[in-house]
Amino acid sequence: MKDDLMNKLMEEVMKKMDEVKETGTVAAATGTGVSGLTEFVGTAVGNTIGFVIANVDKSLHEAMKIDPKYRSIGILSARTGAGPQVFAADEAVKATNSEIVSVEFARDTEGGAGHGSLIIFGAEDVSDAKRAVEVALNDLNRTFGDVYGNASGHLEFQYTARASFACNYVFGAPIGRAFGIIVGAPAGIGVLMSDAALKAANVDLVGYSSPDNGGTKFSNESMIFITGDAGAVRQAIYAAREVGKQALEALGGPCPSTTTPYI
Amino acid sequence: MKDDLMNKLMEEVMKKMDEVKETGTVAAATGTGVSGLTEFVGTAVGNTIGFVIANVDKSLHEAMKIDPKYRSIGILSARTGAGPQVFAADEAVKATNSEIVSVEFARDTEGGAGHGSLIIFGAEDVSDAKRAVEVALNDLNRTFGDVYGNASGHLEFQYTARASFACNYVFGAPIGRAFGIIVGAPAGIGVLMSDAALKAANVDLVGYSSPDNGGTKFSNESMIFITGDAGAVRQAIYAAREVGKQALEALGGPCPSTTTPYI
Amino acid sequence: MKDDLMNKLMEEVMKKMDEVKETGTVAAATGTGVSGLTEFVGTAVGNTIGFVIANVDKSLHEAMKIDPKYRSIGILSARTGAGPQVFAADEAVKATNSEIVSVEFARDTEGGAGHGSLIIFGAEDVSDAKRAVEVALNDLNRTFGDVYGNASGHLEFQYTARASFACNYVFGAPIGRAFGIIVGAPAGIGVLMSDAALKAANVDLVGYSSPDNGGTKFSNESMIFITGDAGAVRQAIYAAREVGKQALEALGGPCPSTTTPYI
Lengths: 263, 263, 263
Hints:
homotrimer; 5-stranded antiparallel β-sheet; Alpha-Beta Plaits; 26% strand; PduB (chains A, B, C); globular; bacterial microcompartment (chains A, B, C)
């Protein structure tokens, strides 16, 4: 058998593996994306799935420590991604009559260096919970836009002109202000980008997390959370993105966006 | 080269990758499954391996905090699976003169969303420790029967008509009563199944765990532990399994059993 | 299509997947390994990357809790490997005018059973920080020599005739004495090797870690840290390596060294 045929095949296989790891799109594409379940809302990039429960079982409601005033919950659950889902949930709570009940991060990304996530919305009415999940699912294509990756790691940037309750709950973002996050994996790239960002613009450092300081649940990421003037936060992100891409490409080759950059 | 040949190849490759991820059977098949080591007992599904140590080194015995009365230990260690190994160990302590010394969960499953496990049996006599490991290894084909998976996640159900010391140690199961667990990944599927289970039958909720509440060691799973009448526990599991399969298939396509369903 | 052609292809694919998982060399090979960044130092096996920051941003410096006397930091960050990087850093602090600022372990290895790592060196002068990172990167080919792996797990052994500050910081190694570590995954293999090592030679047990006792951050590894006479430490490692290889090969077939054994 010819070696170059083998090489061509291997190339395709490796490419496919990377796609699966980074975005989950291949896996999602193999699913039907629809379901006969009344609770099912939809699926999105990152092996993300959304449900709604109109009237949560009483004993489960207590075990999950959900505020008794929310009879209905919306569920946004993903194998790959935490920042994209949190920023999408931030838009969802702005746009709907729902609130953030809890946000949990798993150490996941299907063999990658980051997180999966479980976000619970609470609402008094099931239609509000459902609308929150729909808004978030629809926003994920945007919030995966500044997630860049290759087989060696990933970079993530998120920005909002006006942080709301999801960003406040998770990152301590000041509500109503411009806010961004800068994430790099392996973690050293996160440290490098954080330094570049903070030197590039006059922003306030809200928080720093690294693999074993309690913040990242043992993911191989370092990250900062920043606030300030809208222009300054974006400028800091641009500076970080430039050095981050050079660093990650030196380690693992081209690191394209998962969808389309939005910042 | 024809595209459909390439597609066919990619399909086979993806299938193979899934098999490896979910059950470890391919990897196991490449090993000999036998060894010249006197301590070696055997291997099983889930990249599970079993050993026995007749007389544990004194300093290691202390460091592992093993009760001094157990000179001999049996070791059941797996890359993929925690529930299957715990329920197999439950049968092992019922059937042999051994006890559970410790059960630890690792965040593993070879890139998947769940756990690996390390279970230590204690016995005064090495033949008892060995027998416990043998019983557990032989039971794994059964306890992997209600583990369902695809590239996007997995579902796990376990049931025993009479919980023993392993289920009590790990899940707080009441000894001698019917007991079951319901696990879904990504975690949102676990929440959905838990709600369905608790609404379907009159069972008692023993515990709930999710990615970042301390219970699941950052796996991307939510799960409940239930007890009650044998029929009710099984009925709750059937209801959960039905909605869980629909949800996971909407996300990632068909999710077959790892071996053969037993519940 | 002929089945044996398909089988041959699958074999090649599985081999390639293993390479990626265990050493990261394939991924690294796709990168350029050079970068226009002034902070970039280099890359090495295990998807390891090194940087230097001459003058860390003040707010980041505080958030990272770096001792104010170090203006400059060196960064050694890896997707795969903790022991190899710590022992390489140990040589780096011996050989340069730098110190260990922090060592953090992530639960990583790109879908494998172990860790990635983030090591920060501190120095008053940037040239010292840079030299430390260079020495460590150059030493990684050696320290990956006694890392053995297959699709089912891995074994790791490290040895130094004279432990320095990195080994002291991470493992509690007595400075200036012979010191070694013995690591096995899945964790049961680590227990088996630890017992064999401690029975084979008169060494002192410095520490024991397992998946869920706080030490290994939920990796699927058990490990011991040992000190004593140089000959005894090596003898303990040889005994562990012999049983470890037999056990891991029984589970997953041949488990070659990542580079070239050095102990």
